Amino acid sequence: MATDGDGDGARAKVVLVDDEADIVFLARTLFERDGRFDVVGEALDGEEAVRLAERLQPEAVLLDILMPGMGGWEALPLIRRVAPDTAVVVVSALGRRRDIAERATALGAAAYVEKAKLGSTPALVASVCTAS
After folding, report:
1. pTM value?
2. What is 1-41 written as a DSSP string?
3. Is the residue at 26 inside a domain?
4. 66-108, pLDDT tens digit by residue?
5. CA gap 103, 98 in Å, rounded
6. Residue 48: inside a domain
7. Is 97 a domain residue?
C-alpha cells in the first residue's frame, strides 16, 4: 500500500465504480471510516473507470459488473492494461456464483465479492493491495 506522504502510515488510493449512487455512497463511507484508504475517484460506468484508473493509478478499483454503457466485464481487462499494478475487486449483485468469480479471476480481478457483503470489502481490498 502507498504511504500518505506524512509518514503517518499507509493509505491505499481506491476508485469506486458503480452506476448506483447508494452503493457508491455506502462504499465510500466504509472505506473512509476504515482509515486505510483514500477514495480518489468515482465512476458511473466502465469507460470512466478506465480513464480514472489510467490517470490516478490507484492501488485498487472496486468494479461493478452490470452497468449501462461499458460494463465491468469490458472494463476489467482495459483497467488491467492501463494500470497493471492496480488490484481490481469485482463487486456484483449477481450473488455467490462460482462462474462469475471464475470469470472475474480469468479477466484479471484480484477478488470477487457480492454486493450483499459490501461491508467486508475494505478488509478484502486491504489484503489484495498488500499482496500486490
Report:
1. 0.86
2. --B-SSSS-B-EEEEEE-S-HHHHHHHHHHHHHHSSEEEEE
3. yes
4. 999 999 999 999 999 999 999 999 998 876 677 888 889 999 9
5. 9
6. yes
7. yes
